């Protein structure tokens, strides 16, 4: 099975009345956006085995995957999810492709794996500090009441831009704007903290 992180989020938040136990581990490939580790961890707990792949729509489908190492299986599900949120090795036979910069921003981890970051257009510059929207979104996603989150830059006369979040709560939850802001302020550097 394959699907964007949004599809995985829908599965983990399906009403319990329609969820069924899986007869075996189900392999799932995800891509299209960096999946929040909380989503990956919850999918694993439901019985899905997630592989995160990275491709470039402008050139080719999945071109890298996070190749699993047996020693990682002994890690906690949260640690496994953090590893699976990264992309990894090039597919065999994939050669270098030259193309005008699509705006993808990647970084290399200490073990030489490619990590999916943001698109350059998604970076918020606030008072000279660069804020990656996926970092803020990941913290918001970890709040137990949050179903969906998207962070964008909001024009600010003083800072240039500040992070602004659009959040959908899980059915039956009533966390307030202040609850989400306080939750983020405890977990993020001050310059990345939400103001609204």
TrEMBL record:
Instruction: Tell me the protein family, please.
Output: Belongs to the ATP-dependent AMP-binding enzyme family.
Question: Molecular function (GO) terms listed?
Answer: ligase activity
Q: Which domain of life is it from?
A: Eukaryota
UniProt keyword list: Fatty acid metabolism, Ligase, Lipid metabolism
Q: Which PANTHER family match?
A: ACYL-ACTIVATING ENZYME (PTHR43859), BUTANOATE--COA LIGASE AAE1-RELATED (PTHR43859:SF4)
Start and end residues of each AMP-dependent synthetase/ligase domain: 1-78
Q: Which residues form the AMP-binding enzyme C-terminal domain?
A: 135-195
A biological process from GO: fatty acid metabolic process
Gene3D superfamilies membership: 3.30.300.30, N-terminal domain of ligase-like (3.40.50.12780)
**Name of this protein:** Uncharacterized protein
Q: Could you confirm whether the keyword DNA repair appears in this record?
A: no
